[in-house]
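Q: What does the assembly look like in three dimensions?
Context provided by user:
Components: four
Sequences:
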Amino acid sequence: MAEFEPKIVAFVCNWCTYAGADLTGTSRIKYASNVRILRFPCTGRIDYMLLLKAFDEGADGIIVSGCHPNDCHYTSGNFHARRRWIMFRSLCDFTGIDTRRIKFSWVSAAEGAKWADIVNTTVASIRELGPYTEYKIVANNPVKEVSHG
Amino acid sequence: MNIDKRLVRKDSLEKLFDILKQNSKTIYAPFSKNSKVSFREADSFSGITTDYIQTTQSSKEVAFPRNEKILNYSKDKEGMKVKGIDLNDIPEVVLWGVRPCDTMGIGELSAIFNWDYKDEIYNNRLSRVTVFGFSCSKSDDYCFCTSVGGNPGNTQGSDILFTQLGENGDYLAEILTDKGSSIVSISSALFEKTENIEKEKFLAEVPARFEREEIRGKLEKFFDSQLWVEQSLKCIGCGACAYVCPTCACFDIQDEAHGKSGSRVRCWDSCGFSTFTLHTSGHNPREVQSQRWRQRIMHKFLIMPDRLSVYGCTGCGRCSRACPVDMNILEHLISIQEVSL
Amino acid sequence: MTDNLYMPYLMRIERVTYEAPGVKTFMLRFVNDDDQEKFNFKAGQFGEYSVFGVGESTFCIASSPTRKSFIECTFRQTGKVTNALSGCEEGSIIGFRGPFGNTFPIDGWKGKSLLFIAGGIALPPMRCVIWNALDLRENFKDITIIYGARTVKDLVYKYELQEWERRKDVQLITTVDPGGESPDWKGEIGFVPTIVEKIAPSSKDTIAIVCGPPVMIKYTFPILSSLGFTDENIFTTLENRMKCGFGKCGRCNVGKVYVCKDGPVFTLSQLKNLPDEY
Amino acid sequence: MDDLRKRAKELLETSAVKVVIGYEQGTANKTRALFVEKAEDADCLIFDSRCVQNLATYVTKREVKDKGKMAITATLPVMRSIIQLASEFQVNDNNLLVLGITPESKLVEFKNLSEVETFVHQYQIEIDAKNKEMLDKIAKMTQAERWKFWIDELSPCFKCYACRAACPMCYCHRCTVDFNQPQWIPVPSHELGNLEWHIMRAIHLTGRCIDCDACYNACPLAIPINLLTKRMLEDVKINFGSYQPSIKADHLMSTYKPDDKENFIQ
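A: Here is the predicted structure of the complete assembly.
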């Protein structure tokens, strides 16, 4: 059997992490290709439901990344996001969603190397955890073929 | 026709259960969890509860599951493939411990699913269900089966109706249909021949509280009554009443996609929800809760009798028990009867 | 149809016509010839159109039953399903269940004149009847069509309007709401009820078929009545939210009347007996 | 109780309010909401320890609100809900008068909502011992056990939305779960649909839930969904300090502090 290749969805802000990821490329730093990047105007715009939808659609891991505190293009979007992440993470933890699979980070436009590092370590840790089967079982075929009671 | 009456010893019920299992029947029976009694698949006889006036949810799910696939589709290079569900996969089910108000509800539900267009998914499920009714020896303030054409020992809808002869007593079994007889034929030793037993004195007493024909007559002229507004003021618009009801059949059809394949699902819906009749344009024919409450009562006591020749209420009282704000349907029906036009 | 009432026919989108902003017409052909053979419908009936993975949506069959081998539907992009439909290209496969509902009693109208009054996106349910009548033109006396929309852009079936305009055996009056006219607009300007009043069509031996937004209908009925149309000779269609199309899902009833089974076609006299729930 | 009836009567007779929301005797041993609009009906009002339904859910209901100025019989949880609603601009002194009932069952009438606020702030929101024990038990489970626990507990849910309807904070005209463009939450009540619905509900109530248990009491299937909001309440306390609904303060989830913890962010 081929080695498990994790599918990872990255929700990133346009101004810092997306630019940072660009820099990773232009600096020719090689990094794992398991990540699908979704660009948002700001981390403050990343609805927690989107993270759940990523798991629904088969993601094994998620990266959420934006500007460092005090660097937000819109002044405080990342501060708001951070507060929401705190609560969302703890709710996920409480409901048994594997929080090891959701990675939060700050990556600025200048941190091309850090982005590569975040992706590589996330891919490595998800690879170790294996596919997110628990969630997939619930998400994939939720109504039984012939259900009863 | 004379009803075939047999005696089933109290201890024989477990044996009967085992025989059914050996005959690869799936058995649904009442179990208690978090102080709520509900039907679920029974692996063993122990644990089946007998201590309940009425289960929290009705048994309608065996024929009308709350989520039910109606087709699967997949897209690939060759095109679109759509496949209905295979009705042959539906298991043979014994529904154990159903109260007579629920067994009566089966007929009312069937009337909806067979109104001109025959719903074969529903009919196929139902045709594989054998119903073991259990008469009521107890009732509570919510029960009103006798006001809507039922009674605590009603045989309607059961294949076999069991009536316990006194607390801890043996059971009288009335074999009512061919399905019932076929159960007897695989376990005939357990169904003993018996002298005529009168079950009436072992049944709960449920006094009749209203005349449903009279209510139906009033409802004809009641559409614009202020009463709906008054009654529904405390209604908070949830769907609990509809979901526990043995005869509520309203449903939604939803598609569930996963990549290039998915399924179409029929799932329960409730006329109590504000979005139930909402048009995409924003227009809503039933905009406020009083109109939705009116629909609920009208549907059961006027529209169904007029269009389907059956009433849509069996007097099980579940909706009142389940209601988070104590909207008591019996009280409301009585107050409709009492209004002078 | 199969045992499964919910099983749609597979239809291939043969042609997409852009009608007006957000409004498209699909010409649909059955993927399986068998289905095509067996399929029959009458003017006024509707169906459930579906995009697999998104859901079903209810609208009328806009083509005439006299034209076999395809059906057409016209819809405005408003909700989840119509948005998805709008994204479908020629050649894609969609689902169709139907036909459902009652029909216009077109056979009973032989020898009479027909007056069609439509507003905006409500022309499609009527187009079915119009073509049906035009294809059997010798059965009817005068055929008059009064059609209005908010602006010139919003008029649907522009090519057919031109065709009806040219035909000698049809009288077509188009109108747009005041302010909705373009510089080269040659039709009427004014709301549909006003135009009906102005034209004052004769009610003698005439059936009126009215479809449109609720306000238009509301103001058109009294004018027709004053022109001498009886309630039995005024027809319209109702629409309500529905899921199944055959009287089970419990949404579309207006009092005791189910729009999906007893409708969607009603006469004004039937409408007057319905409670105010639509 | 007599005080309450007397006061309700006066308020209605003088037209100071148009409707008094209180409790009456219900079926069996239950109590239920009563809307008194005529002074003579005030005698049906009751109050005792069985009166636990959170009546604040009615002050945002269109049909009730449209009657005019409301007075509400309010226990401590109801008062807390009202303060939270006031901070969200759903009620104000012009449309609501609070007939408070203290934890000692004494009637106190408040002149305005800021008096209610002051009263409410004397009491901390405390999770009861039994539920606290349950929270601890769940916290001690492994992640996989917790997942199984919730999938099992939530699986009977048939999405009747009684929890939403009974909650005073769920007053949105259109709930996220009712949106279909995009379809955030699957409509069918299967495992995924139920899980996402309850996560969504808990998140939307974070920093707003005052722990009245209305959702749990309303659930016809007795699913312990209140544990989710209780856990959120605990975490709000741990992360952002104690929580009290207050009319003027910033909402916990729409504000931030520069030093909010970020030990989980790389």
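Follow-up: The two ends of chain D are 59 Å apart (CA to CA).
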